[in-house]
Amino acid sequence: MTEYALVVEGLTKSFGGKPAVREVSFKAAKGEITGFLGPNGAGKTTTLRMSLGVIGPDRGRAELFGRAPDAAGMDRVGFLPEERGVYRKMTAEAVIVFFARLKGVPAGEARRRARDYLERFGLADAAKKKIKELSKGMAQKVQIIAAIVHEPEFIILDEPFSGLDPVNQALLEQMIREQAEAGRTVLFSTHVMEHAERLCDRIILMARGQKVFDGTVNEALAQVPRQVLLAAPPGEPVEDVLSGFGELVNEGEDEDGAEINWRLTLNAGIESQAVLRACVEAGLKLTHFEPRRPHLHDAFVALVGEEGARELEASAEDN
Amino acid sequence: MRAIYLIARREYLSYVATWGFWLGLLSVPVFATLGASIPGWIESSQPTRYFAVIDETGMGLEQVIRDRRVEARREAVRDQVETLTRFIGEEAERQAALDAFDANPNTSQAASDAFEAVGFPGLGENLDLEGRDAVMVGAPGADLNDLRPYISGDATIETSEGPRALYAAFAFRPSDTHPLEVVYLSENVTNRDLRNEIVRIVREHLRDQALLERGLTAAEVDTLLGLRLDVTSLLASPDADADTEVTTLDRAPFIVAIILGFILWLAIFSVANMLLTSMIEEKGGKIIEVLLSTARFHEILIGKLGGVAAMSLTLFAIWGVVGGVLTALGGAALSTVNPDLVGVLGVVFDPVLLGAALIFFIAGYLMYGAIFLAMGSLCDTLQDAQTLMSPVIWTLMLPLLFLFFSLEASDSTVVRIASWVPVWTPFVMMARLPADPPLWEVLGAGALMVFTTVLVLWAAAAVFRQGALRQADADTVRRWFKLGGKKG
Q: In Å, how far is B296's CA from the nearest CA of chain A?
């Protein structure tokens, strides 16, 4: 028995001579939530499609539950693709039953689960309504239910948060946590780092078709230099006291000119407490001292540079 | 198999479990009846056309026209009597009916006599005895100018229907260069039926007069003009004595096969269009990729083809049952009137022709259905599809021409070659079948058609794979064929 639901090694794919994915390798450990992060066009969807055998790679291989993706393996997977929709003329319950049956759930059990999930997702009243009568958010929830109704061991969600309002995004986060707590493996792609930061045990960062990072969230955050934001009245010898701790940047005076804002990027191994201690010992009249907690976005910027960060921001605007 | 079955089932129910399907099913006989009735309605709803004749020649043409029209009407009624008596019995009965008709100079009474003579006194009631589409009235003026207000509607004539305007007026005048000068005056410039009828009557009268003036008797003129050749069509056989006379029954299979060819064409075109529309809807609704997470490309393709095929077969089955019941009932009724007519129904429901039609439908449907599905997978909108459809539509239209050809010459080289073109085989070979083409041709063209169907399915699956995942679209195809001109 493999300990990984998915293993991909050296996956490479080009379309019309343009490389879409280059030498991507990673593993999704059973029972973990893995985030697959990167801007639009980073190669996330193509990698997921190759992982499931929907398209074949030019090079490399994917293993689903320890063997090449096949129909039996797919039945153990719940996949929510990025390009998704449901039959608008079918009722919410009929859609869920249809996809459950495609995954091998018997008709009676499929109906029972459909009603159960619709109730859990607050859609009990919409069971007999046609999809075209539902709001976009409700329809998206039906799609998510259709992807997990057969209670798969491995859930793959491609950009599951896109198109959802904040309330439904929180609901989806809750659902992902519940699935993981129930022992299921979850892999989801997103370009919104906050979701991954809150949910993931492990993240894979993609940029321009290549993997740029693979590790835990903490390991990713460790890639980012720590920063301290400070403010002090003009004339205080801030540079004299702190320049030895790292790169100190004057970010200008505040509106009334009563204080100057500083950003100190700490050298490796320096803790913010040491900076505070030095300030106190030097008698600096600080008006503001804020050790800044790094985020995955910062880690991404640190790993791929400013151009990658701009692509990420453009993706956020597109969605 | 599970995915294929479920996708086919969903596709099938999406059509069959709708009111539209059943309304569509019912609308066929309704529209067929309407279509068949419309010419009659147009004819019967047309107002009576009153016309007047001014004869300035002194040849008594007004009376000639009146008499000849009565005579022509009597001939028309006699033809109707003859046609109806064909359904009643053999030659002896027909002759008895016609003799009874000829014995009575009053046309309407003669028709009743004719049917009474063969034991169907009520049958003549539906005959058009009067022919009231155009009625000649006395001219309300001495010359054409006097009649103008009556034609424009400023003045009216008294008729049995009340005051009416004149539809047209004829003036016959002497001419220096021709036997007569005819002036036709009407506000209707498109319908020339009445003008042609009256001119023909007068021309025939002048011809008869010319023959009489050359010394022929009236009986000789009648004999001369009534010359008829005795034509017998025989179905050739190696043994001269075994030749049999060609009857309507012999021609029926050719006509039935061509009609089946048209029905096949219509059915395949309609059903393939349904697949195209459904595919575009699914592509636009982003359902395909969701399906791909649960089923493979070939399962989706086969499932969709299977579902729509099942819907079509349901349609055919319903019509088959309805047709079968009507045939059984109609056959029983007809056999009491004329057992020979049951033979016509046997040709219409010939199991060999119907079996061939089913095979050709399946092959044609798979070929064109797969092509339309593949096209649909490349398009997000019907507008996208229209540019790709043109070559396929032209390919589909051409066999219609061959079907028309085959009606007159099912053994022509062009039709034979067309029946070998795999994408046309289902329609053209269908039309050729009653002519008993060589078995090797039927099997050869059939094998080529099956091979092409497999090839098309394989190619369609490959295109479908690209289109469904948005790795190719209509622009890709246009660029590939260098038709679009624009690089997208």
A: 8
